[in-house]
Amino acid sequence: MMRRKIIIFGAVFLIAYSVAETEIIQKEQHLLIDVGPTNQMEFVRIPNGEFLMGSPVDEEGHKTDEEPIRRIKITSPFFMGVYEVTEEQFKLVTGEKPPIQRGAGKPAFGVTWDQANEFCNLLSKITGKPIRLPTEAEWEYACRAGSKTRYWFGNKREELLENDWCGKNSSDEPKTVGTKKANPWGLYDMHGNAVEWCLDWYAPYESDHLDNPYGPLTGEFRVARGGSFFRYPNDCRSATRSKFSPEYSGGTIGFRVVIAENIKKPITQQLTNKTVGQPANANDRLNFTVQESHIGEEGESVLVSFLIAFGKVFLLALVTSVIVGIGKYIFTKLKREQNENSTLDNAVDDAGRMDKQPSAGCD
Length: 363
Hints:
With 363 residues, the protein is of the alpha+beta class. Helices cover 36% and strands 14% of the residues. It contains 6 helices and 12 strands. The strands form 3 sheets. It has a 5-stranded antiparallel beta sheet with strand order 1-2-5-12-6. The longest helix has 66 residues, at 291-356. The chain is elongated and about 100 Å long. Residues 16-26 and 265-302 have low confidence and may be disordered.
C-alpha cells in the first residue's frame, strides 16, 4: 500500500514539476506590459551573442553603406517588442494620436524620431523599466536571429511574400501587426509593414569588431531599419539601412522598443566638426536606469535557476527511490510466489508418497 502511494505521489510531482518548469521558462522568455485596461505590449528575450553585421558585395540588393561586414558582439541579453508599437499603444502612453492613422492594430505611422524617443521616456516612467529604441546593431542582430542570409528565412525574395508585408503583396496598404510569420526568436514584421527608427545617428560602418556599438555622438540623420508595406524585396533585407532627419514624419515610418540598459553619453560633449560622425566608445556603457529592476531581475533569474536545479535533483532522487521501491516490490513478490510454489510442490510430493505406502490391514 505504501509503495503504491509513493508511486502515485511521484507521478503527480513529476507532472506538476514539468508544468511549473515550463511556466518559469516561458516567463523568463516573455514579458508583458499593460498600457491600458485591454492592451498589452509583449516583449521577447533576445539572447546575447555574436553576429556578422552588414552584407557581402555579391548579395542581391547590396548597398555600399552595408559594408564592410564586421563581427559584432551583443554582450547582454535584452527584451525586444514582439510587434511594432501600434496606434492604440502610442495614444495610451502619450495621450496623443500618431500623426498618420491607418487603423486599429496597425503600426503608429508618421512618428518622428523625437516622438518615438519621448514615447520610450514616458513608458519608462510608467513602468520603472529602462525602455528605449533599439540600437542599429541590436535591431539587425534580433532580425537575423542567427541567420546569415538576405532575410531571416533565406535568400529567396518569393518567400518574403509568405513571411512579411512588402510592396509586392500588401496592395500598398499597411497591415495589422503580427499577421505574417515570426522569426525564430519570436519577432514579427522585421522585414516589412513599417520601417523602424533606431537609436543611432547614421554613419558609415567602421571595420573594427565591436562590442555593443551604438553609432556616433551626433549627426544629421537617424538610422531606420527594416522594410515596409511599400518597399520592394531588395529594400527589405536584414542588412538594409535607411537614414532620415529626426523630424521626418513619413507614411511608412514606425518603431518598436526594447527593454535594455541605457547608453551612456559623456558628461561633457564639446561637439566640433571633428567629433561629428565619430563613433562613441563601444564599451562606454551604463547600467539600467532603475537599478532595482536590474538587480531584481538578476536575483529572480538566480533564484529560478536554483529552484530548477534543486527540483531536478529532488526529482531524480524521487524517481530513483520509486524505481528501487518497485524493483524491491517485484523481487519480493516473485520470491514469495516462488516459496509458495515450492511449498505446494513439497506438499504434493508428500501426498504422493503417502498414497504409495501399503495400507495397514488386519490379518
